[in-house]
Amino acid sequence: MIVTDEQNEQEDDTVKVFVSDNSGPEKYVCCFFEDDGETGYLYVSDRSARKVVKHLQLYANAQELNVREEDVRVGWASDGLKCGVVIWSGLRGVIDLENGDVAAFITSRNTPPLKDPKWLSGFDELLDDSTAS
């Protein structure tokens, strides 16, 4: 799903925001991915404070990578403590609310996704959904 920024007075077709409908822990209800035409970031927002509380940069060359809506899936791990983004069928970034962040910084379409079972744990459904689409 692409969400437009209602506070932005100018229309900018280069900004793409992908929102997960899955909820995480009670306080952190939304994880989302944004490509602003230059960079790609994964975010976790706090519903009560109405602000981003964690973010993770995944790439800095958006125009070269040309990430499209159908390339991206965001969601929570089964434990509800990790938010992840799948791009091109591979887990590319994780925000772990308890233990820190990790990312496979993407420099090209050939950059390998995260492989460590520690980070893949709990994302089976998200990874399965991404390969089915």
Q: Could you list some keywords that capture this structure?
A:
single chain; mainly beta; 4-stranded antiparallel beta sheet; 3 helices; 13% helix; globular
Q: Would you kindly provide a written description of the structure presented here, covering whatever features stand out?
A:
The chain has one domain (16-132). Mean pLDDT is 83; it is low at 1-10. The chain has 133 residues and is mainly beta. The radius of gyration is 14 Å and the shape is globular. Helix content is 13%, strand content 36%. The chain has helices at 62-65, 117-120, 124-132, and strands at residues 16-19, 30-35, 40-46, 51-59, 72-76, 82-87, 90-96, 100-103. The longest helix has 9 residues, at 124-132. A hairpin with a 3-residue loop joins strand 7 (90-96) and strand 8 (100-103).
Pattern of helices and strands? EEEEHEEEEHH
The residue ranges in which pLDDT falls below 50 over 5 or more consecutive positions are 1-10
Query: Helix fraction?
Result: 10-25%
Provide the gyration radius in Å.
14 Å
Compute the number of structural domains: 1
**What does the overall shape look like?**
globular
The portion of residues forming beta strands comes to 35-45%
Distance between the termini: 14 Å
Total number of strands: 8
Overall pLDDT score = 83
Number of helices: 3
Let me know the largest β-sheet.
Answer: 4 strands, antiparallel
- By secondary-structure content and strand pairing, the structural class works out as mainly beta
* Neighbour order of strands in the largest sheet: 1-2-3-4
